[in-house]
From TrEMBL:
It is an enzyme of class 2 (transferase). This is Metallothiol transferase FosB. Keywords: Transferase. It comes from Paenibacillus nuruki. Its EC number is 2.5.1.-. PROSITE patterns: VOC (PS51819). Residues 1-102 form the VOC domain. InterPro entries: Glyas_Bleomycin-R_OHBP_Dase, Glyas_Fos-R_dOase_dom, VOC_core. Pfam families: Glyoxalase. It comes from the Bacteria. GO terms for molecular function: transferase activity.
Length: 113
């Protein structure tokens, strides 16, 4: 819970002993405490959730991630002509997330070419 509060600068909508709800950029995020389940395979996946960011905010976001203890992943090579910039990071459970400059439509246009 603290990780998401610090990284996304949001407050939880609901806090229960084993569940926390957030709304981040129109997405409902439910965190549920589940102990004794395997989590290693998640580190092998590129599947992720991307959040739009402004290029001018990337340094601030990177610093916020570092303060929150995020694991920042090395991103893949980018084409500077149309792909934008990204910061990939993992939450404490290992889920891969991304702050990405540009819009979803720009990204889709790039991949349509």
């Amino acid at each position: 819970m603290t990780f998401y509060i610090n990284v996304f600068a949001v407050q939880p909508l609901l806090v229960k002993p084993k569940t926390v709800y957030f709304e981040i950029a129109g997405i409902w995020l439910a965190l549920n405490l589940q102990e004794d389940i395997p989590r290693q395979e998640i580190h092998q996946s590129y599947t992720h959730i991307a959040f739009s960011a402004k290029e001018k905010d990337l340094d601030t976001l990177r610093a916020r991630l570092q303060r929150a203890g995020a694991t920042i992943e090395e991103g893949r090579q980018r084409n500077p002509e149309g792909e934008g910039q990204s910061i990939y990071f993992r939450d404490p459970d290992g889920h891969l997330l991304e702050f990405h400059t540009g819009t979803l439509e720009q990204r889709l246009d790039y991949y349509r070419k």
